[in-house]
């Protein structure tokens, strides 16, 4: 008694899981680039916060 169109279509749970994994991977890639920038030049990356406290 199952509808055959549901079994032939895309599984909604699988779609949400794939979208979640893709968003997590994009977030991790973004964080990796920010951390590399911070390691390469820590003073330039944190200059906006220190300028306000020094002046």
From TrEMBL:
The keyword Methyltransferase does not apply. It comes from the Eukaryota. GO terms for cellular component: membrane. Keywords: Membrane, Transmembrane, Transmembrane helix. It is found in: Membrane. The chain crosses the membrane at residues 15-33. The keyword Transmembrane helix applies. It is a single-pass membrane protein. This is Cortexin domain containing 2. It comes from Cricetulus griseus (Chinese hamster). The gene is LOC118239232.
């Amino acid at each position: 008694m199952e509808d055959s169109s549901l079994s032939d279509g895309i599984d909604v749970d699988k779609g949400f899981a794939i979208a979640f994994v893709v968003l997590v991977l994009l977030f991790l890639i973004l964080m990796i680039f920010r951390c590399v920038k911070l390691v390469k030049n820590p003073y330039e990356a944190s200059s906006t916060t220190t300028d306000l406290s020094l002046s």
